[in-house]
Design goal:
Elements lengths: L7 E5 L5 H12 L10 H13 L3 E8 L2 E13 L2 E11 L8 H15 L4 E4 L6 H8 L27
Helix pairs in contact: 1-2
Length: 163
Amino acid sequence: MTQTPPRERIREIDITDLPESTALYIRVFNAPPWNDAWTDETAAARLAHTLDTPGSLGLGVWQAGKLVAVAVGYAEQWYDGQHFLLKELFVDPGTQGSGVGTRLMHRLEQELQERRMEYVYLLTARDSHAAAFYRKLGYRESESTILMTSNLPDQEVCDPRLP
């Protein structure tokens, strides 16, 4: 079990945390291995959309007053109960590997159990450090579900890594 650093605080985030969350999101996903091209506008819109979704839950980790990690997603109704789609988990590159992501995920799972969620699911890059992180936490690849994509006619491919 990882030791919680002094002055670390995990709390629910909301729209007032959007500027700080957006800056962290860009710092994480515009860097390797993701190498995305998020802007303040697009990253803020993605996070705001998720936080505005009914059943949303976002948690942030602050260390010494600085936001260093965020987990955000929302509940969806399924025939067998509420499932939680973890849309984003991002940790400041300078604190990755320190256990902050693990502590955040444990806290998220605790919150979801209190809210009577039955299941957590997420998407991540195959054979990535992120996938290895989730496996260490007990997550596994679905044997029954695949991700399928399709480019719409007359549209450029948004992500060249997708088929």
